[in-house]
Amino acid sequence: MGNHYKFKLSASELESVMENHHKALGADFTEETLKIAITFRTIRPAYEILLIKPDEIKFNFSPGVSRKLDKADEVALFVATLGAEASEIIDSFKSDPFAYYAADHLASLYAEALADFVHRKIGLIANDKGYNYSNRYSPGYCGWRVSDQKLLFAAFPDLPCNVALTEGSLMFPVKSVSGIVAMGKEVVYASYGCEKCRESCLNKLIKEI
């Protein structure tokens, strides 16, 4: 097994992650939304990163993901979560449909922001090793089978961040993200966008309508 990193976000790091997405919402970030957002300040997101050699696990990558990882000298597996407390906060708004939707939407944004935060941390690890690093890829996206979550989770010595998998390979707590990032001398980071992906997915179908 390679290097294994375990972290929890500090209060200031969490505030930074949340604030960036509040700005991105622009006019949609109302006073009512702010009141809901404040309730998430008590959570302590966690993440784990595991570095392994590319041939240690035989993932069932789609051709698109495989092409992005085939130059890797090492790969970083990660699991990140807002934790069970985030789900409890969302559920506390069930009596108010708008607030419930807003809380769930905010938590999804925070989970994505957390994944971006972890991606940057992996980039720093890669740079320290003299490597470039790739985009991040998650099971269930870009044609990569969601069932490979089980292979990814099994690579960690313990249940990463106390995140469990359902029988269908979905994560619980639900506001969690997992994935892989390639690191290596010849690895290339590509700009995101549907035009860069050769796989068929719902997002592409919607954009073509």
Average pLDDT for all residues: 88
CATH architecture tag: 3-Layer(aba) Sandwich
Order of helices and strands: EHHEHEHHEHEEEH
Give a short account of the largest sheet: 5 strands, antiparallel
Strand content: 15-25%
Q: What is the tally of helical segments? A: 7
Spatial shape: globular
CATH hierarchy, class? Alpha Beta
Question: What's the total number of strands?
Answer: 7
CATH topology: NADH Oxidase
Going by helix content, strand content and strand pairing, the class is alpha+beta
> Could you estimate the helical fraction of the residues in percent?
25-40%
Parts with pLDDT < 50 across at least 5 consecutive residues: 202-209
Number of domains: 1
The spatial strand order of the largest sheet comes to 1-2-3-7-4
CA gyration radius, whole angstroms: 18 Å
Query: In whole angstroms, how far apart are the ends?
Result: 46 Å
List the helices and strands and how they pair.
Elements: E1 4-8, H1 11-25, H2 31-38, E2 46-52, H3 63-69, E3 74-81, H4 84-91, H5 97-128, E4 132-137, H6 149-154, E5 164-165, E6 171-172, E7 176-184, H7 202-208
Antiparallel strand pairs: 1-2, 2-3, 3-7, 4-7, 5-6
Helix pairs in contact: 1-5, 2-5, 4-5
